[in-house]
Write a structure and sequence with these properties.
The structure is a homodimer of 219-residue chains. Chain A is mostly helical and 219 residues long. In chain A, 67% of the residues lie in helices and 0% in strands. The first copy, chain A, binds a DNA duplex (30 and 30 nucleotides) through loops.
Chain lengths: 219, 219
DNA sequence: GCGTCAACCTGACGATGTCAACCTGATGGG
DNA sequence: CCCATCAGGTTGACATCGTCAGGTTGACGC
């Protein structure tokens, strides 16, 4: 029960324990306001101000918890796309994994994405998504600036996950997996066609009709 | 400087003033944590616990502020779609208005959509969106359950707005309006085609190819 | 003229983030 | 071997927050 003081050099261990306790607390309760410095310290078996030995303030602690989740998400997306040749297929996998990950880690995702000034935490993860989009551009299945395209796709995936998490009282369909798939298709398909591609095998007249059809949305 | 006590029956006026003060505070600072009961009461020129005369607790106050914003948003969407015959065009207008409204009221939107248990505040607004989608279904430009389709479209719009608000450090394109338009087109276009329509004037072979193309995203 | 009730204030409580000051045990130099 | 040093904590306190119990004041009906 009694905590033994760490030897010099092992102070970093406490940092890990605090991080783990904070994550547990967030997941178990699901409510961000339950993430109290006192609760975290208590669960770690340490006094409250000791948290300040390893984190500048509460926001820094939360940000560190988030960073963990981002790393995990990026790992899963890479894993989901590994061994898939078609970059468009790989992109679809990424999208589905993204949304599912968000739903499986709703508490963290809420903190992750819905905080103000969460800073550059997501940039590494975003970098991978740009990578996946670039492959599609190189393959000719998408056209345009990869960063901008990736932002649009991320918007769709994030919107789906975020809305599911923050508005559970909405009349969501029973089959959530199918809804997620529909969203991924909507985003990928819409992006591909709205970016004026793929024209492989589609006649000029049809392309013109599709363009005119899409244009009705924003005129 | 000195507040005069309201006559019996006029207590509701204070409620309005508190609501206005809370909204001002939220907009001016842009930070939700600046929305303190003491700050609100101080700005209204009233003692702190007086807020409890008109709101059960802080959450109820925030919720009331949010309700105002939802009403305003619904009003603007109705206005944007008024007089437009083509339901698909009307839907596009709604989407653009939605995102622009969110960006123009970032502080409120953040509170609105990114809180936990925000309850049934958005349902009226959602109802209108279902209405607009239903018109498209009736016109044959979309196919499927209007509620589910509306949820998908809302996901896209919300994702765009939400990501822009909560991740301002992302490499967003310079022309934000164009990006919003692209997102609206992506969502509407993708939904229309992913819902297996419109087939007007598109050959069976092309439809099959488009289906196969979209299917690559979720297999 | 008096009671009653809405409208509001005062004072306080527990919880929270944060800080200054203190303690304590291992470690390395002399 | 001893003592200064310093990492690794603790104690106690402060301001601020949401919230509540109880008191005060003015208007209005009878």
């Amino acid at each position: 029960m009694k905590r033994v003081r760490a030897n010099p050099g092992e102070g970093v261990r406490l940092r890990e324990q605090i991080l783990a306790a904070a994550e547990e607390l967030l997941v178990e309760t699901g409510r961000e306001e339950a993430l109290t410095l006192r609760a975290v310290a208590g669960r770690t078996g340490v006094s409250t101000p000791s948290v300040y030995l390893h984190f500048a303030d509460k926001d820094a602690l939360i940000e560190a918890v988030c960073l963990r989740a981002w790393d995990e998400l990026e790992r899963r997306m890479r894993e989901a796309a590994r061994g898939i040749d078609d970059p468009f297929r790989a992109l679809g996998r990424c999208g589905r994994v993204y949304v599912r990950f968000a739903l499986d880690h709703a508490a963290q995702y809420r903190v992750l994405m819905m905080r103000q000034g969460s800073g550059s935490a997501a940039e590494a993860c975003f970098g991978y998504m740009v990578e996946a989009v670039s492959a599609c551009v190189a393959a000719g299945v998408l056209r345009g600036d990869p960063q901008t395209l990736a932002l649009g796709l991320w918007s769709a995936a994030h919107g789906c996950a975020s809305l599911l998490i923050s508005q559970p009282s909405f009349p969501w369909p029973e089959d959530l997996d199918a809804f997620i798939d529909d969203t991924v298709r909507m985003a990928g398909f819409g992006t591909a066609l709205a970016s004026r591609l793929p024209r492989h095998g589609i006649s000029t007249e049809v392309v013109a009709e599709l363009d005119a059809f899409a244009a009705r949305l924003t005129e």
